[in-house]
Amino acid sequence: MGAAENKTLMRHLFTEVAKGNSRPFVDALADDVRWTIIGSTAWSGTYSGKEAVLADLLRPVNGQLMGRNIIAANRFVAEDDLVVVEAQGRNTTKAGVRYHNAYCWVCRLTDGKLVELTEYADTQLIASALRAPD
């Protein structure tokens, strides 16, 4: 797939995420995906493999949120196998803390699958709004 196809795929995935449907995004994760969160928070680091991403990152974060994790993308930039996505979260934790994080993800795709994702976000918000992972 080229840059245009990758951009179209990412636009579709985030259209669904904005509606609270994360299934297409999860399905697009490669089995050997590497998801890196920058910074020095308890959540920062690299999660290697789809099962680790789900078990150690996505489920624990989603478990702290009221309702579905809503993130709306507002910009996509694509070149070769990379798509950069800027997005805004619209969430509240179960503790009642507003969690409207701003994100920039640099995503590398291969054959329609996300194989690498580097997440840039408001790490102070992550540290203050979310409990550390177990």
Question: Could you give a quick summary of the protein structure above?
Answer:
The protein is α+β, with helices and mostly antiparallel strands and 134 residues long.
What does this structure look like?
The chain has 134 residues and is an alpha+beta fold. It has a single domain, classed as Roll (Nuclear Transport Factor 2, Chain: A), CATH 3.10.450.50. It has helices at residues 3-18, 23-27, 50-63, 123-129; strands at residues 29-37, 45-48, 71-79, 82-89, 91-92, 98-99, 102-110, 113-121. Strands 2-1-8-7-4-3 form a six-stranded mixed beta sheet. It has a two-stranded antiparallel ribbon with strand order 5-6. The model has no long low-confidence stretch (mean pLDDT 96).
